[in-house]
Structures
1.
Amino acid sequence: MDITSIEALEALYGRPKAPSIVKEVAEITPDYARIIETSPFAALATVGPEGLDCSPRGDEPGFVRIVDRKTLVMPDRRGNDRIDSLRNIVRDPRMALLFLIPGVGTTLRVNGRAKISAEPELLASFAVRAASPRSAIVVTVEAVYFQCARAIVRSKLWDAASQIDPDSLPTPGRILARLSDGAVGGEAYDREWPGRAAKTLW
């Protein structure tokens, strides 16, 4: 049976309990600030005319800067230059962040609206090894709340015993080679990637 209405959905799940409601606020509280400042990783979700995008963002803890209780700024570090997230933000400012902290089950969700800044002084303030990001994402916070640890516990995400041997999975080079009939990727791509990445992290 497909669920096709909000009424049917709410009948199936019932009403959320008090903690699920109380935890959501419209600004960054001191407790939520501590989580953001400690997180080295966030998933950024955006939406645009072509559809949805969710991309990983990571750097040293605190890489998402708290400007005030309603404003966050995140540098756009080096990536694959597809700029899918940035294209979306330019055309539709709605976005969400999901912060993770290694070893911690609780995650933090931030919903809001974003804009792209190329203001030189702002970008220079995010410089690492003399390399500044080409842009920064400025977020106006609309909702902040933590997510309980159930998903992390079920997935055993931080459990060392559950780690997968990378050699058991297809490598990026192999995937690219198969998708391009050998025109892109291959063993050389995988072999050269660590050195290439080390030179282009920032």
2.
Amino acid sequence: MSPWQDTQHDLCSLEALRAIYPEPRRPQAAATLDKECDHVHPLYRPFIEAAPWCVLATHNGLTDGLDLSPRGDRGAAKLVEVVDGGRTLLLPDRRGNNRIDSLRNLVADPRIGLLFLIPGVGEAIRVQGRARISAHPDLCQRFAMGGDKLPRAVLVIAVSKVFFQCARAATRSGLWDAATQIPRQQLPSTGAVLAALSQGFDGADYDAALAERQRQTLY
């Protein structure tokens, strides 16, 4: 039997986990536990406001499905805005593919998680809370691009937990090391993937138009 098929050594209880992962003890516990806040602390706020990219996690309470979705923006287009003294985040839902996986999940279950990344910075910021989806005209106008390119909705996130993740994962992976970057052409193209999964799909034509199409439809 392959090791990954053998369940004999699965850790299925908190006691089993703690036998391998002992409780943090002071002074190390300060860096592990005391960093947690129930709002966006003034020292966490610059990290969130500097982040051009985050991963959004949602859960579909109806089907027990989980989903992760990327969100990105920079410059005049804010990825997220911190309001209410750090108690609330506003996240515009920019133009996408209309699958609305995350939005459908939030309709069923408002719990949400976010992981903010900043290029060149090893630490990541983790946020947990509950979100509602607002199409209030003034709220959408707040995130307008080019005067008339508005998000269709804005996530209003009530923050319940914020803390930083240390830089170990980024350091181990070489995430921000230019020497570790992989040329895109070394991997299957988007068109090649779609052609393999869709009958009669012209992958080459899709790839040829992709960069310009994305540039034209960012907002």
3.
Amino acid sequence: MDRLEAMRILLAAVDTGSLSAASRQLRIPLATVSRRVLELEEHLSVRLLLRGTRKLTLTDAGRDYVASCRRILEDLMEAERTATGEYRAPQGELVISAPLVVGRHHVVPVLVEFLQAYPKIRARIQLSDRVSNLLEEQVDVAVRLGELPDSEIIATRIALISRVLCASPAYLASHGVPKEPNDLVSHECITYEGYSAADRWEFGLGRNSQVVQVASRLIVNSAEAAVIAAIADAGVARVLSDQVVEPLESGALVRLLQAFEPTPMPASLVYPRQRHVPLKLRAFLDFVTPRLRQRLGYESPRSS
């Protein structure tokens, strides 16, 4: 039995929550994952995992052993980084995840500048409005929108982004301009299934907040589709402010009910908590953070 391989498989199972998720992450058969963990338990003569129907649970012995495995593998990775020169100069591959519009308009241009400044670094960027699992998908750093739950990630705020209500001038000319949130009940709204409770729109702040159940004739699965539909006179859309900068400036869309907008949501760069941050990731964070803040209009960052 290759104990280092078995340790890696065990950690993948623990971090992803299941043997099947570890199989997908590591791209090895589920039977192999299960067999390696069982071999490790037989070698140690101790039960490490309780295999439930939904999620793996560590035994007391398993918690101690996993903590030791994590230290051993991190020390091994650091030794390899030192041997390959990663601590002498930033190098290697970075995997980056970002929402579609923020990624295309802001992250990609800054990433190109970064790669020009650091010729020994390669990058792979994943643009999707789906929230990626950093550990399961082996993502080094991601742009996340919204408040972040307490977890094993480090976050650096790069922006505050408003949720904007908008419609085309032609739509408003034929349906009227809403004066308050409740007026939306009689409007045709475009909803985005990427959000939970997509047809329940929140307005206002604190005690003055209210939720309006909107009627939707068109449901889309990307923010870009919502913007395109709104420009094409399909109705009222609710999107993020960075997604409609150009249509608002050109007059293709009109911003509505601005006085009732909820508190802007934060945008953050996030990466997994780790004992030693690779030099390539440190260089990326130092380079892109001030540039993204400038592009997104976040001039006076607070600690996050």
